[in-house]
Design brief:
- It is a single chain.
- The protein is an alpha/beta fold.
- It has a single domain, classed as Rossmann fold (3-Layer(aba) Sandwich), CATH 3.40.50.2300.
- The chain has 5 helices and 5 strands, in the order βαβαβαβαβα.
- The termini are far apart.
Length: about 140
């Protein structure tokens, strides 16, 4: 499957309104060693971000009835990287500012994407806001 150590000890937030997809993602990431918190709406996820402070998040772009913008702003403010996992295949990656994985995706694709996202965020964590490589 994916990395056997990349998600160990990490906390992931999954925001998805389809129960079967939530279960699939939770089982997948937990099998890789992550702790997984789930929310069915971006509004519910906002509360979890404040309580659990995840390492990264997986967001369903098309979550019913809720705008993801406030959640995305909060995640960015906390320095929490995220991806969109969506059934929409025509989204503009530049305007969303996050990687997009189109549903359905293989377990390998999801694990690799999250692991790479966490790796990049760890590398960037020691840089100043301008990316100059100077620790805060």
């Amino acid at each position: 499957m994916g990395s056997t150590t990349g998600l160990v000890g990490r906390s992931l937030l999954v925001v998805e309104d389809e129960p079967l997809i939530v279960l699939e993602l939770k089982e997948l990431f937990e099998a890789e060693g992550a702790t997984v918190h789930t929310a069915s709406t971006p509004t519910d996820a906002l509360r979890l971000v404040e309580e659990a402070v995840p390492s990264a998040a997986v967001l369903d772009f098309g979550s019913r009835g809720d705008d993801t913008a406030p959640l995305c702003q909060t995640l960015r403010a906390h320095g929490i990287p995220f991806i969109y996992y969506t059934g929409f295949d025509d989204l503009d990656k530049k305007s969303l500012g996050a990687p997009i994985v189109t549903k359905p995706a293989s377990a390998e694709t999801l694990i690799t994407t999250i692991t790479q996202l966490l790796s990049v965020s760890t590398d960037v964590a020691g840089m100043d806001p301008n990316g100059e490589g100077v620790p805060f």
